[in-house]
Amino acid sequence: MTKDWKTRTTLVHEGTRxxxxxxxxxxxxxxxxxxxxxxEAAEARFIKAGEDEFIYARYGNPTTRMFEERxxxxxxxxxxxxxxxxxxxxxxxxxxxxxxxxxxVSSRALFGSCLYILEEVLTRYGVKVTFVDGxxxxxxxxxxxxxxxxxxxxxxxxxxxxxxxxxxxxxxAHAVGxxxxxxxxxxxxxxxxxxxxxxxxxxxxxTKHVDGQGRALGGVICGTKDFIRKVAEPYLKHTGAAMSxxxxxxxxxxxxxxxxxxxxxxxxxxxxxxxxxxxPKVTKVIYPALASHPQHALAMEQMGSGGTLVTFEVAGGKExxxxxxxxxxxxxxxxxxxDAKTIATHPATTTHQRLPQEQKDALxxxxxxxxxxxxxxxxxxxxxxxxxxxxxx
Length: 393
Prior knowledge:
Strand order of the largest sheet: 1-7-6-5-4-2-3
Low-confidence stretches: none
Oligomer: single chain
Shape: globular
C-alpha cells in the first residue's frame, strides 16, 4: 500500500514486521533456516513463497526484508535486494543482467573496484564495455548504440565529485532500450532523485551513509519488482551475496537517522568548502554547491545540495598532502566515507592506487588531492582543524 509519508517518517516506520510480542525495536531474526508445519507446507513454499514466507537466509529473512522494503520506499522503487557489500550490489546488478556479446557503456570516472568489474570481470566473459567522459553527453550519444544493453555510472564520481546528468543519459539509453544502472553512493538516497530522473536500477554501498557509524559492510540494489526478483535475485541467492540479518538490523537503525545526518553533514561540508576557497595552500576546491564548480547548476537541479564530501588539492603534491593529513587532530585518516566521524583520504595512494598514472591524470586524481568526508562534528571545530593542518602542510 502506498503511504503518503514524508522521508523521515518512512525511514522510521516503513516495512516494519512485528512478532506476536509487539516489540518496539525491529527484531533480529538471527536464523539461517525456517521450520514448516508439515511436508506439504514445505513443498508449497518451495514452489512459491508467499509475501511474508521465507525459506533460507540466503534467499530472504524477515529482518533483511524490513530493510529492503524501507530503502525501496525511500528510493521510490518497487523492490530491493540487500547484499553483503556495496561491491556485491554493483557486481550483482551488472552480472545478473548481462551475457556474452552484450554491450555496456560506462562513465570513466569510477571507484577502483567498479572499474575492475567492468574492465576485468565483464570483459573476461565476453561483455563489450565502452568508457566515456561521464559529463560529456556527446560521448554518451556516440557510444550508446541499438545493441547497448545497459549504461552504468556514478551519479557523483569518486573522488572528484563530477556529476552525470541522470535525466539526459537516461533519455539516451532508453531510446535504444538500454537499462540505466546508477551507483548513487555519493549523492545519497536523501539528496538524489535518480529514479524520478530516469534511472532503472540504483545501487548503494550501505556501508557508507546508511550505516553511518562505520560498523558493517552492506549494499543494496533497488529497482522494479521484475528486475529484483526475476533478474537480480536468482543470481544473488545462488552465488551467496545476501546481507546477513544482523547487518540488516544495523542498517535499519542507520536509516532512522539518515535524513538528519546527511543534511547536517552537507551543511557543514558547504561551510568547509567556502572556508577552503582562496586559501593560499589550497590550489583547488571541488564541491558541487559552490558556484565555482563547473556543474553547479546541474547539481542544484539534480540534488539540491552539494552533498557530504569536499575534495580539494593541497599545494606541494604528495609530500604536502601527507603532512596535511598527518597534522589533522579531529579528522581521521581512513578510506571509508559517510561516517559520523570526519575522514580524510588520499585517493592517489589508497582508493585509486591501482590505477595507472595516466588514468589518474585523466581523472584528475593528483598527488595533492584530498577527499574529505564530513562527519557530525561541529563545523567550526572542523574548519579550525583544517586550517591548522594546512599551516603544517
